[in-house]
Design a protein that fits this description.
2 copies of one chain form a homodimer. Chain A contains 6 helices and 2 strands, in the order H-H-H-E-E-H-H-H. Chain A has 127 residues and is mainly alpha-helical. Chains A and B meet through helix 1, helix 4, helix 5 and helix 6 of A and helix 1, helix 4, helix 5 and helix 6 of B. Chain A binds a DNA duplex (30 and 30 nucleotides) through helix 1 and helix 3. Chains A, B: Belongs to the BlaI transcriptional regulatory family.
DNA sequence: CCTGTTCTACGAATATCTTCGTAAACAAAT
DNA sequence: ATTTGTTTACGAAGATATTCGTAGAACAGG
């Protein structure tokens, strides 16, 4: 089991963009980042270089303008962070986290139904 | 709207202990911290002093041995961290987070029922 | 070929977090 | 009164994260 590096706050923002867009150049990532955050171009570049060293990103450096891509999956990272959070902030109770999350975010009836279905499937599997 | 300070990793551990125990001395907190972590006493002390400056803790300094207490609620802090997480890692979808959390943590049928009830209540309220 | 633009690499400054040594205040025990 | 132990305060070292300036390579257009 390759234990995964824990991304920092800024690194998570970049990962988020790459998960959504797929492989991208530094410029592209930077442009999106800029919309929500003050940052110089070389700052974004440096961050992505470091992430590459850490193994969080892969890159294709064959052309002059390198292309970066997330090398950790969104799901695995989500799980990693959820586990930590449940552990330190929610007294180890996933249920508590779930209810807290539902309570403060307007979910549409359709979404609620999806969750119900999900619950049912889980119950079947257990037995 | 008092925007809340974001606790660091170590600060969260201390908050967790204070939420559980209620008002405590540095020594008491440190003793518990030690069980899961290598740390010197003055490290814990310093951390708690900083947290006090930041407004994360209140303290009663009337006696020689000060008594500390969390001054941010567990629920509010949970919400703050959840929001950030949903935003940066779950594409803004609380539903996605909920399903991910349920999928990887064995929940008992009783817990699943509680969640179902919760879902129903929410749906009523929306109207 | 020259010029201006875009890109990477590098290194260093800055900021933030974490850890701990030391000293002074205080209290309890001898 | 002196010693011993516990506590706070302070400051600084060490570790990690973030930001950016500068230089040089690569490229595009004239």
């Amino acid at each position: 089991m390759n234990k995964q590096v824990k991304p920092t706050e800024s690194e998570l923002e970049i990962l988020g963009i790459l998960w959504e867009r797929g492989a991208s150049t530094v410029r592209e990532v930077h442009e999106i980042l800029e919309q929500s955050k003050e940052a110089g171009y070389t700052t974004t570049l440096k961050l992505m270089q470091i992430m590459h060293e850490k193994g969080l990103l892969k890159r294709d450096a064959s052309a002059k303008t390198h292309i970066y891509e997330a090398s950790v999956s969104q799901e695995r990272t989500q799980q990693q962070l959820l586990n930590k959070m449940i552990d330190t902030v929610f007294n180890g109770s996933a249920t508590q986290l779930v209810m807290q999350a539902l309570g403060h975010h307007r979910s549409s009836p359709e979404e609620l139904d999806r969750i119900r279905q999900y619950l049912n499937e889980m119950e079947k599997k257990q037995s």
